[in-house]
Amino acid sequence: MSLPFFLGKIGKHELRHYMNPKYLALAPALWPSSGKAELSFDLQSQRYDTSYQYYQEENDRIAIESWYLRGDVNVTESTSFRFQYLRDAISGASPSGVQPGGLQPFLIELEDVRTGILAALSQQFGDHRVELEVSRSKESDYLSYGFALSDKWELNQKNTTLTYGVNYLEDDVRVIGIDDQKKRGYDLFTGITQIIDKNTLVSANLTIGLSEGYLNDQYKVIQRTDIVQVDDGMGGFIDIPVVNAYAENRPSSRLRQVLQLQGTHFVESANGALDAIVRLSNDDYGVFSQSLHVEWRQGLGDKWEISPFARYYRQNAADFFVNTLDQVPITNPPDYPTGSGPNYSADYRLSSLDALSLGLRMRYQITGTMAATATYERYQMTGVGSDQAPSAAYMTANIYTLGLTAEF
Predict the structure, then answer these.
(1) 3-state secondary structure at position 252
(2) Is residue 91 within 8 Å of 66, Cβ to Cβ?
(3) Which of 14, 94, 199, 374 sits CB 3.0–4.6 Å from 266 for a disulfide?
(4) Residues 390, 359: contact at Cβ < 8 Å?
């Protein structure tokens, strides 16, 4: 599952979520497959991967250039180390939250560079493999640190694997006009992977997460029509409507649950493998989302692998999503909301929407240890139902990825 599908890559501050190792692990487009259209469970001594991705929304919207470098090294038979370095450069325009066609700017320009690093050390203890992971991500107004501890427990002659662990993120947000703000995230995750037969693998994963602190996007606003009374010079007043923009106010905590089911089956007669992933997510914002990812990996001879894929995503709107503050009973919206009610946001990412992604990935085995990949993905988002944002807020994007992998 590529990152744009789940997070949209729509604006500057949704990028920081990618540093979370759970999301990074969902990006096969950036981490090429093994080169064989079959299941393989053999560990490689060393694996290095570098990739470049260019994400471009149409109509001069957001453009993102991303560079990744990853490595996975088995130091000894029981100890392994992996790392990742990334750099994102973002520029372009993103919806501000106001309605189109007015005096307030519907699009705002964004430009920033983000760098991040992740390192993990794992150790085998009998049937258990324990891993400690740390990460750091930085941009001009954001600094994030992450820590994760997990265990993989192999059972049933290694045909069954239980995974469980915890993840912690601590962020410092530089907010214009006030002191720096804090944001913290806590995740508990568990999963089970089962080998059914030599060609079939299934898994189920559950994550329960809590975010608290400054959850607003300081670059998103919401408009309201205020009435200004002007003396008419004859002892009366004239009411003049004036459209003003105010900062959004999301709740200061968010509890979410994510269930992911995955199945992989290798079809020997076709020399191809089918992947299917269903993902259900729910949170106390009132957002319930469902997604389906289907991919076919087709081997062609000894050198080529071609993988068409499709993803569909749907979510309902957050309970506090509104297009304007005219719909919210509030007298004086604060300049710097703290999350206390009433809550409101016009961010189209919290509206009711659908997203469809179609793509093709090609892999070529250059030598016995080197492989190259190229991926194209077309991504389109649309609003649905009565709780949608203006149609101009939703985007269509093209995503191009090139990668090179070396295994020893």
Answers:
(1) coil
(2) no
(3) 199
(4) no
Number of residues assigned to the chain: 408
Structural domains in the chain, CATH included, are 3-407 (2.40.160.40)
Taking a C-beta distance cutoff of 8 angstroms, is the pair 186, 197 a contact? no
| Tokens describing residue 211 | 């975010």
Q: For every residue of 186-244, which 3-state class applies, written as one string?
A: EEEEEEEEEEEECCEEEEEEEEEEEEEECCCCCCCEEEEEEEEEEECCCCCEEEEEEEE
pLDDT score, position 341 = 81
Residue 272 CA, distance from chain mean position: 28
Query: Given this model, what pLDDT does residue 297 score?
Result: 97
Pair 377, 29: CB distance under 8 Å: yes
pLDDT, residue 308, reads 98
> Which residues, other chains included, contact 43 with Cβ-Cβ below 8 Å and sequence gap of 6+?
74, 80
The single residue listed with the structure tokens 């990412």 is: 349
Question: Any residues with CB less than 8 A from the CB of 180 and at least 6 apart, and which?
Answer: 172, 173, 174
Q: How confident is the model at residue 12 (pLDDT cuts 50, 70, 90)?
A: very low
Residues whose CB falls within 8 Å of the CB of residue 269, separated by 6 or more in sequence, listed in order: none
Residue 187 identity: D
- Are 254 and 217 in contact by the 8 Å Cβ rule? The answer is no
Q: Are 122 and 79 in contact (CB under 8 A)?
A: yes
Q: What is the mean pLDDT of residues 255-282?
A: 97
Dump pLDDT digits (tens) for 50-105: 999 999 999 989 999 999 999 999 999 899 999 999 999 999 999 999 999 888 89
Comparing CA positions, the residue from 343, 370, 340 lying closest to residue 222 is 343
Sorted by sequence, the CB contacts under 8 Å of residue 368 that are 6+ apart come out as none
Structure tokens at 387: 């709780």
Q: What is the pTM of this model?
A: 0.86
On the question of a cis peptide bond just before residue 329, with omega within 30 degrees of 0, the verdict is no
Question: What local confidence, expressed as pLDDT, does residue 44 receive?
Answer: 53
- What is the pairing mode between strands 181-197 and 160-173? antiparallel
Q: What is the DSSP string of 107-128?
A: EEEEEEEEEEEEEEEEEEETTE
Rounded Cα distance between 252 and 211, Å, is: 8
**Euclidean distance between CA atoms 324 and 285, whole angstroms:** 18
